[in-house]
Amino acid sequence: MKILVTGFDPFGGEKVNPAYEAVKLIPDKIAGSEIIKLEIPTVFTRSALVVEEAIKEHNPDVVLSIGQAGGRSSITVERVAINLAEARIPDNDGEQPIDQKIKEDGENAYFATIPVKAMVKKIREKGIPAHVSYTAGTYVCNSIMYNVLYMADKKYPNIRAGFIHVPYAPEQVVDKPEGTPSMPVETIAKAIEYAIEAIVENEEDYKGSMGTIM
After folding, report:
1. What is the pLDDT of residue 210?
2. Is 86 a catalytic residue?
3. Confidence of residue 213 (pLDDT cuts 50, 70, 90)
4. Is 131 one of the catalytic residues?
5. How distant, in Å, are the alpha carbons of 45, 67, 174 from that of 13?
6. CA of 54: how far to CAs of 3, 5, 7, 68, 197, in Å?
7. What is the fold, at CATH topology level, of the domain defined by 2-201?
8. Does the N terminus or the C terminus of the chain have fewer Cβ atoms within 10 A?
């Protein structure tokens, strides 16, 4: 199996993005699978183009995208991406879509095609906080998750895809309000590694309940 793992570059005034910093630390082989690592721009338009070029070059079986969710306290594996781009701040190219569809011919939403619950379960078993998330937001993280699942639906039916949000790294919260959560990049990297192990090990997802009441 070949797995393309992407992580975003820094955005929003941050000097680092724990997403790609963690991706750089994961092994090149996980559970017998070849890992291809790719930094992608935090840009609505270009991010999808960069990932598609990598898909064409490497022909992966899985595309797993990683992004920063500042303010979240755990690893959150996303279950759904919506066909909406709504940017509170401009991306790194200055794009700031408001109330726009990502793809005019796309579904209103796409569900991740990787075993989301099994990934969360595996990460928790290794002692790292993790949850299923039912909102990937409306910024570039949601956009790349949606775009890759759209590509899988329309062009690359052999590909499974999904997205993981990760907390701030500790150095990012030094000047943020007291109580702002963070997680060491090394811990994030181990969580990604365990998530990939779950992807390799599970063709079908874990059936236990991980829903919310909110």
Report:
1. 85
2. no
3. low
4. no
5. 20, 15, 14
6. 11, 10, 13, 21, 22
7. Aminopeptidase (3.40.630)
8. C
201 given a catalytic annotation? no
Residue whose tokens read 């997403």: 19
Q: Which of 171, 187, 131 is nearest to 17 (CA)?
A: 171
- Note the pLDDT of residue 48: 98
Give yes or no for a contact between 164 and 66, defined as CB atoms under 8 angstroms apart. yes
Interatomic CA distance for residues 181 and 167, integer angstroms: 7
| 3 state DSSP class of 56 | helix
H helices within the chain, ranges in order?
18-23, 44-58, 116-125, 140-154, 185-201
Decide: helix, strand or coil at residue 57.
helix
Residue among 39, 95, 125, 141 flagged as catalytic: 141
Q: How far apart are CA 144 and CA 124, in angstroms?
A: 26
Backbone angles phi, psi at 132, to 5 degrees: -80, 135
Of residues 52, 53, 165, 186, which has the active-site annotation? 165
Read off the pLDDT band of 202 (50, 70, 90): very high
Instruction: Determine the Cα angle at 124 with ends 118 and 127, to 5°.
Output: 150
Give me the catalytic one of 52, 57, 78, 107.
Answer: 78
DSSP string across 171-203: GGSTTSPTT-----HHHHHHHHHHHHHHHHH-S
